[in-house]
Amino acid sequence: MSAHTTTPASHGSQPRAWARHHPAAIDRFTLTYLRRELRGRLRQALLIALGLGLGVGLVSTVVAASAGARDAQRSVLRSLYGIGTDLVIAKPAAPAAGPGGGFMANALQPAGPGLIPSATVASVSHLAHVASAAGGLRLSQFTLTDGLPQTMTVEGVDLAHPDLGPLGSGTLTAGRNLRPGDAGSKVAVVGSGYARSNRLSVGSRITLGAAVLHVIGIVSPPEDDGETGIYLPLATAQALARSSDGTSLAGQVNVIYVAGDSSALIPAVQAEIARLLPGTTVTSSGGLARQVSGSLSSAAALADDLGRWVAAATLAAAFAVASLLTITAVTRRVSELGTLKALGWSGQRIVTQVMSESLATGVIGAVIGVALGCAGAGLVAAIAPKLSATVQESSGSSNTTTIAVPLAAHVSPAAVAAAVVLALAGALIAGSVGAWRATRLQPASAFADA
Amino acid sequence: MYTLTDISKTYRKGQHRVTALDGLNLSIAAGEWLAIQGRTGSGKTTLLQLLGALDHPSSGVINFDGRDLARLTEADLVDVRASSIGFVFQTFNLIPTLSARENVEVALIPQGLSAAQRRTRVAEALASVGLADRASHLPAELSGGQQQRVGIARALVKAPSVLLADEPTGNLDVDTRDEIMALLEALWRDRGLTLVLVTHDTAIARRAQRVATMDDGHLSVAPGERPQPGHATGGRSQPGQQ
Question: Is A398 inside a domain boundary?
């Protein structure tokens, strides 16, 4: 055993001055201490991280389910009104002319909304902040098969703007799509559900009214209801259909799809159209979303309302538990932290150490939270039953369509970032509580029982 | 080194006020070895905490190298603890998750030294207590005596002028106790430290130059077996008496 002879005076006062001006710098020793603490108290650190992770994971799951429900709603609307459609103009249907609602068997007739002159489409397209407008003719054909009534839904598509309206959101799976050169031709694109149930393929023939049309393509809409089946050139639809009183529909549409050039100006465009076309209904995509009913609507409302509160409550509970566990951890280290103070560590340096450990725990919590959120979202998508969405076939129409929609809950990059921020915020709160406890310790607590 | 004048310390314990130190006067010379004895609860540890700038007295003056510790700000007290005073604890107070080397390094962190400087001084300190080959071991991998050696190295690595030891051999067997006391004695002698040692062990207390006995907050001082400062070592100043 030896004792070297360094004297107290051998180390100057410069380091002390440095220490006072850099009391809480995170240096290599802070990180070493942090790493050793996490490793040495792994179970405790994991417990706190798990608490944070559970809270964050549940929030991520609820956010993913909510986003999934919103996506499903959007998807339903797109399938009916098209991807780029911001506004839908329709006119309330006139009362039916004859007995049986004016429907005639095997006749192609307007599906519900009242008729609007085609020239109106041009007027709308010239309004300020309107990027494009397209007319559509929603028709239905009522048939009796083995004494049972069946309704076939047909859409006349404006070939100048195929991106607007329901066909714009479909994916071509066979053949080709309608194009401007098809105007007036007896050709049709059919929905994949309709094609399947009626055993149609490219080259098949279908009868609408008194005409026979060639199937040139099969399209798969985002949400296939199996009913909205046939898309024709608008001019062909106008030529084949008759109103319930037998008059021609030439030069008539019953729905106008509008795309604005700025989403912020949609309300202004909506108001302008309402002034231009009194007696029509102008519905925005937000308004359309509110018209969706059925289990999808209930799920979206549940995720938005109850889910938000459950997630917030769980998150608050997770933060509280993490804070309590951190206080407990600091309390267990009273002697250790008191010893550090007795050795000349400043309160700020100890706070930095406690906060660093808490933040590191938060990072672990974030990883656990994101993993749990992804797993939770996957579980929701796997076990959630298909939701049904009931929506008007077009604005102003009294006819409704019910579509089965799968709930695809997924955790987006933004949700992952939010989960990380939440976990770190929780860790900071817990760390602040623990640091507050640590700053209240007297250096004399070094003499407490270790 | 220290001059304590009319020091009192009272605590509130529930509804009661407890007087731990009552009008205590004491001088400790630089380089002196003072042992403090007394029954449990007599105020020994409270006195040690005041000497170590860990607590403030309720009244009185603690003059330490010309500064009144009772009136220093917390930042100044932190500086005093960081540079001038080394502690050795009965229960060693090592951080269980850090190695022996890192436990010693902890004491140098407030001084703002570079990592290389810290490494050198830690190696010297561990070598001085005979633990150079145990530097990477965790406290749980060391015997009680070795842990206390790490504690002593930690106290001395910053080259303090005062070493305050609270029952440093209280948790050790007799053989280890003698080893640790021999080490402390060698360090005290070689480094010119002021050593204040709280102990229940009369045999250890007698090895000091003076023995202070605490009784119900009051202090009485008697000479130890070792020659008084100034008698044997020549250059040391004469300690004051109560």
Answer: yes
